[in-house]
Design a protein that fits this description.
Blueprint (H helix, E strand, L loop, with lengths): L2 H16 L3 H7 L4 E7 L4 E2 L3 H11 L4 E4 L6 E2 L4 E8 H31 L18 H10 L12
Antiparallel strand pairs: 1-5, 2-4, 3-5
Length: about 160
Amino acid sequence: MRKQIEQYIEELVLEIKEDDSPVYEIFSKNTDVVSCNFVARTTGVVSGTKIAQMVYKKINPKISFKILKEDGSFVNRGDVICVMSGLMNDLNTGEALALNFVRYMSGIASSVAKYNQELHDLDTVLLYSGFAAPGLEEFAQIAFVDGGGSLREENKNY
């Protein structure tokens, strides 16, 4: 993955750690070691697990993060995508950010896979247009490819 993605993740994690929310204060005092899963809420294609792993490793390198469904894999509702274990406060710190990346990227990958399936009998290739939410372009590119799409030459930068 590109250095820009790592820098972006690092900046987001720093913002979370510096957050003065009362919820963070409650969990920051909890030193219990727990395990949790990301579970597919619907059928589709998973994407963003490596980004989620990166988020958790930036929070605490000691967090155990096991990917059970690789990016680009088809999942059914209820499938466990990844398993994490570590300090409760560390897992809670990164949960929203990591899960939002997986949701955003899996949504793109699932849509691309759906269109690929519809166009299967035609001699077509889905090409990434280069348009995504500001700041999330590289993540959208990765998700697009995970869904079975292709990048134009000018977009192949990750």
